[in-house]
């Protein structure tokens, strides 16, 4: 990975890291109130784009700096001719620091939200009449589930059916995990500052944010060097430097040779989907290793993918001894059980780049440590691509939010773990992680995972390092899904990859 990535827009900051960025900037001579001014002004600009002239805007302000951003926005929007109603969750005497300064600078009338679980009928009515509600209740400082008046207010916002702009995070969403224990604001748009947070990309946070924009508030990217971020947004910027640009003087033998182990006659399609995707992803050659009973059906369906009969363990060993095959994929449609475990062990002992998916994962629940030892002894990259069910079977004791689970699993297994879903997390054993957000919901269809595993193998075959190959594969899979559109079936994905790769290569103009 390019070391300059830590300064890029792909960086995600946990609320603690954001606090560090804030402190480093303030200790570097920029007063905190100046950061808050810029944050509040950015919120006001975003709000102005969401409403007509002279709009009615209700701003809900919490007890911390998130509320402080709300006071600044209130001042700016009032000055711009909007009618602004300001509601404080706690009496202004509880404010301090920059939030108090922002409140004083605002100098506008406000009300305090009544105590108790219910909120006044008049406040609920006002929210329902607003052109826009600005949620400046809680942001990075949320440290417990919402309760009491805060919870009642959030419920009233969601019940109002009005457009909502969230400051930094929808109140109730945990910035580090995207979790919303209790309840959270459902926003149409969110303005955050300096860099996105994991909670903007992980569900349910992602859905609750609406569209996210990132405002520059004067924090310099240089502070990131001291913070050393390790969680990233899975965008091309993260891995473009490792994109396998074909050597103009190269040939197919210099672009890697992936072998995909296919299953018995009744389940041949999955491995074929993988093999086709590996080829589309740019592997120079792809061979489908087939059991004898499936040879005919595979032969009927394959053209550019080569076919090799592999009658049993001995034939497999023989094939693996050929070092021209530089990447192996096993799992899709392969079958679950002891034979699969033995095949995976034979593959990993050959110390090649390997992708283990589907049945190759499901065969190990009671033998997970055995698998991790084999992975640990293999210096080449190994990718595990479980969905939630496969993950839970392989790592039954690893619980918690998705980012934490994927990172623990990567650390324990020594593999790059691709924990799939609408917000796929890719985690490397060295602690790096990336969160993906470009996958359309209609990508959740039979065979889609086989294609993802195939793309990963195709990229590994071209020599892309494990973490980057997994990130590229997940992103391309999402782009191919968008390209194929609603109604897609897995067969549509490999052809759609062509357009996705072309767009990427055109963008880099280096292809
Ligand atoms: N860190 C930075 O660089 C900047 C931060 N800014 C703003 O500051 C915010 C963070 O400010 P704070 O750290 O003051 O945190 P918040 O304003 O998000 O909230 C902290 C306050 O809420 C209380 N609280 C937390 N969870 C609660 C719950 N469930 N129910 C009731 N009360 C609860 C805390 O006790 C504390 O009083 C950011 O989200 C952002 O909006 C901006 O002003 C710009 C600069
Ligand atoms: K908020």
Descriptive report:
This protein has helices spanning 15-27, 32-50, 65-79, 97-106, 121-129, 148-160, 205-209, 223-227, 236-239, 269-280, 295-301, 313-320, 338-349, 359-362, 368-376, 388-394, 402-413, 448-461, 466-484, 490-508; strands at residues 11-12, 56-61, 83-88, 111-112, 132-136, 164-167, 189-193, 211-215, 231-233, 257-261, 285-290, 306-309, 327-330, 353-356, 382-384, 416-419, 425-427, 433-435. An eleven-stranded mixed beta sheet has the order 1-9-18-17-16-15-14-13-10-11-12, with helices on both faces. Strands 4-3-2-5-6-7-8 form a seven-stranded parallel beta sheet, with helices on both faces. The two termini are 19 Å apart. Strand 10, helix 10 and strand 11 (285-290) form a beta-alpha-beta unit. Helix 10 packs across helix 18. It has 20 helices and 18 strands. By secondary structure, it is an alpha/beta fold. Potassium ion binds at residues 66, 135-139, 166-169, 171.
- Residue fraction in strands: 5-15%
User: Stretches where pLDDT falls below 50 for ≥5 residues?
Assistant: none
CATH top level of the largest domain is Alpha Beta
Whole-number tally of structural domains:
2
Structural class: alpha/beta
Q: For the record, give the distance between the C-alpha atoms at the N and C termini, rounded to a whole number.
A: 19 Å
**CATH superfamily label of the largest domain:** Ribokinase
Architecture per CATH nomenclature, i.e. the level-2 architecture of the largest domain: 3-Layer(aba) Sandwich
> Could you report the average pLDDT, rounded to the nearest whole number?
96
Number of strands: 18
Largest sheet: 11 strands, mixed
